[in-house]
Amino acid sequence: MSYTNEYTEDFTTGNQNGNYFYYLVNGGGDPGTPCGSVNAGPNQDDKYIKSVFTTANPLFFDPNHYYPGSGWLNLAMVVYFADSGGPLPFVSDITNYRMTWRLRAKNLYLPPRARMVQWIQGHYPPSGVNVNYERVVGTIGEQLGFGGSAGRNVVTGVADSGWVDCTTHFRPLDSEWRCMGANPTRVGVPSSGNSTIYGCAPTVSDFFGSTKSATKIDTGIFFIFGNAEPYDTAPSEAVTGELWCSNVTLDRWS
Average pLDDT over the chain, rounded to whole? Predict the structure, then answer.
């Protein structure tokens, strides 16, 4: 058996699909609104896309997964599968796929409680909730030079990582993935009054295998800020610097 490529996006060719967003506070708009993509955005470059993080334009902190979930988070880059209107093919079972991002960190600073990980989200039909997992082994941050294990950084800053192929294997092992859970306002039974509910699958294998009947499968790169007191207060420190991407591939094990 070997890997077969199912999708490649090479930003150096200029033939991009425009589905790679970075999320910042957008000029008074709704927090989390995509303020740029590879085809239209203030930080577009001819040879790569880049997300620029500054204290003047700080990240929007998504509160859906703070304690007892994984923590406050922000999407640095995200790509959608076909069932969410994105360029990635429809995947009947993401088990044992792999995704590789060619990335470069430039003067990128992560506060001590922050980690950079691959994330995947999908609707889990057996319970009707949205399930999110973060990769805790061989994280994006580790591969870019922040070191550590399970998302715990050894250094807080990388001046220039050079171009690095950062690969995530979607192996169905609970030791390699952590369910991100939800904050207390986002748990329960989905209803018309509170339709966006988050939870966990019994195992990551159950979740990966359920993608054949799931909807809105997304994946990407997250910054996650570990929980701290008070749990419902957004982190005071910001990620700063730049994250560049020149290539994304999705391969199937067969």
Answer: 76
Sign of CA dihedral 58, 63, 67, 71: negative
Residue 132 CA from chain centroid, whole number: 10
Query: In the structure encoding, which two tokens stand for residue 135, read together?
Result: 């990769």
For the chain, the C-alpha Rg in angstroms (whole number) is 17
Token code pair at residue 42: 């203030």
Q: pTM, whole model, 2 decimals?
A: 0.83
- CA distances in angstroms from 16 to 77, 119, 181, 226, listed in the order given: 14, 22, 33, 34
Q: For strand 71-80 and strand 177-179, is the pairing parallel, antiparallel, or unpaired?
A: unpaired
Tens-digit pLDDT profile for residues 146-177: 987 655 677 889 999 999 999 999 999 999 99
> What's the domain range around 40?
3-253
Is residue 36 within 8 A of residue 21, CB to CB? The reply is: yes
Contact between residue 221 and residue 75 where contact means Cβ atoms under 8 Å apart = yes
Rounding to the nearest 10 degrees, give the CA dihedral for residues 253, 176, 87, 52: -140
- Residue 104 to residue 89: CA distance in whole angstroms: 26
**Domains of the chain: total:** 1
